[in-house]
Amino acid sequence: QVQLVESGGGLVQAGGSLRLSCAASQRPFDNYAMGWFRQAPGKEREFVAAISWDTSNMYSADSVKGRFTISRDNVKNTVFLQMSSLKPEDTAVYYCAAGWRLWSVVQLTTRGNYAYWGQGTQVTVSS
Fold first, then answer.
1. CB of 10 within 8 A of CB of 44?
2. Which of 89, 94, 125, 127 is 20 to 30 A distant from 81 in Cα terms?
3. pLDDT tens by residue, 41-64
4. Taking a C-beta distance cutoff of 8 angstroms, is the pair 116, 5 a contact?
5. Mean pLDDT of the chain
6. CA pseudo-torsion sign 112, 113, 115, 118
7. What is the mean pLDDT of residues 70-92?
8. What is d(CA 96, CA 51) in angstroms, rounded to the nearest whole number?
């Protein structure tokens, strides 16, 4: 069982930045791929970014490419999502997720491949 706890959400003005963190309870942590998904009110939960278990692959959704960066620190059992140039349409609850040894783009971007989810952290971007 992997427990995930997100932090770092909040209210920010358009154009601003936030860094989300997700701490995992599982040791070792480095066998799990980590992903970030988000869900806006009335919408489906969507893929944002992911990093493979061995850190060789990283993918991000077209809507955030060039603005959001995912990274991980396997010593601290933590994954990060650095968000910059935020837009009002980025407003959502952001969830981190863990999946066993996901690697390919299809594996990493598919919500159903992630077995463990955090409780979510709210990000609100004002215009």
1. no
2. 127
3. 999 999 999 999 999 999 999 999
4. no
5. 95
6. negative
7. 96
8. 11
29 pLDDT band (50/70/90 cuts)? Answer: confident
Q: What angle do CA 59, 64, 67 make, to 5 degrees?
A: 100
Residue 65 neighbours by CB under 8 Å, 6+ apart: none
Which of 123, 21, 30 is CA-nearest to residue 74? 30
Query: CB count, 10 Å around CB of 105?
Result: 12
Q: Whose structure tokens read 């706890």?
A: 5
Strand (E) or helix (H) holding 109: helix 105-109
Sole residue written with tokens 């998904």: 37
